Amino acid sequence: MSKSERQDGWWYPWIFVGAFAIIISVNATMAFLAVDTWTGLETKDHFNKGNNYNTVLDQRTQQKALGWSSEFTYENIATADDPRSGQFVLTFKAPDGSGVSGLAIQARAVRPTHEGYDQDLVFTARGKGVYIANATLPLKGLWELRFRANRADEVYIERQRVEVR
Q1: For the chain, how many structural domains are there in total?
Q2: What is the pLDDT of residue 81?
Q3: Which of its termini does the chain have fewer beta carbons within 10 Å around, N or C?
Q4: Would residue 3 count as lying in a domain?
């Protein structure tokens, strides 16, 4: 064999070099995408939320005993100033079908996929168990309305999803 001829299998080490180059480039791409696309959302105080789960179950049992039901609607009422302005309507019914009045409602519109856009909503009573809040949500897409309605010792807590166009 002369010096100008290569030995059989001279390229075998390059298979390993190529494989490691592919693995490193894929890992670098995945790490970049993981850091670059993170929205910043995380569960705050997760340990205590887990420990308080029995309290949540007790509250749900008390809520079922009330027999109330709620209906939620959202209507986009576009204005010249903002096409995303709209109106939230909550209707509460007692077991006999009459409206539940005298409720103090604490509500928040939460953007499930982006941090920093949540808004508190102020609901006003319109009679016969109907409560209305006007709001302009800053982003299109899916939002979650989290509300708590109180009247004396009676508490009703719920979450509803809405799409803003």
Answers
A1: 2
A2: 76
A3: N
A4: no
Q: What is the pLDDT of residue 2?
A: 61
In a shared domain, residues 128 and 68: yes
Domain range spanning residue 32?
8-38
d(CA 96, CA 164): 33
Q: Compute the CA torsion angle 63, 53, 110, 159 (nearest 10 deg).
A: -30
Q: Is the pTM of this model over 0.70?
A: no
* Domain presence at residue 79: yes
The pLDDT tens digits for 38-92 are 776 666 777 887 888 888 899 899 989 999 999 988 888 877 777 778 899 999 9
> Residue 137 belongs to a domain with what CATH number?
2.60.40.1930
